[in-house]
Amino acid sequence: MSENAGNHDGHTRKKPVVEISSSPENNSFPIGASINLTCKAELRAEDESHLDRWVNYIRWYDPQGNEIGAKCQQPDREKRVKKYSCQSLLKKLTVDKFANYICKSGNDYPNHCTRKSFNVRIQGKQIRPHRA
């Protein structure tokens, strides 16, 4: 079975690869802490010769789906870099800020973006799965 089985037009290959890290390095924090989330996106090696597949932008979204932080946009196509990053600072965490934050990265293809989430948890508190 091919790598693109079930995806006949190769859209997956056009999507950036995304990683999220935090500073301090953790995903459990005390109430009142401030953390910096960094989203790093890069194009896939096989897309290097296609400038329209290079990372164009990175956006951060809060748990309600609202854009937060900087709107990171690469310069014009000729000046783009292969690895691009964007930070979002969460200041003085309150209980309602402990949730999933989403990083979205895309290129010149409007529907070819990658979303990745980062779960910010309260330090020392176990969150039990929701049962229906």
From TrEMBL:
Residues 20-29 have a biased composition (Polar residues). Residues 1-10 have a biased composition (Basic and acidic residues). Residues 1-32 are annotated as: Disordered. InterPro entries: Ig-like_dom, Ig-like_dom_sf, Ig-like_fold. PROSITE patterns: IG_LIKE (PS50835). It comes from Pocillopora meandrina. The lineage of its organism: Eukaryota, Metazoa, Cnidaria, Anthozoa, Hexacorallia. This is Ig-like domain-containing protein. Residues 16-119 form the Ig-like domain. It comes from the Eukaryota.
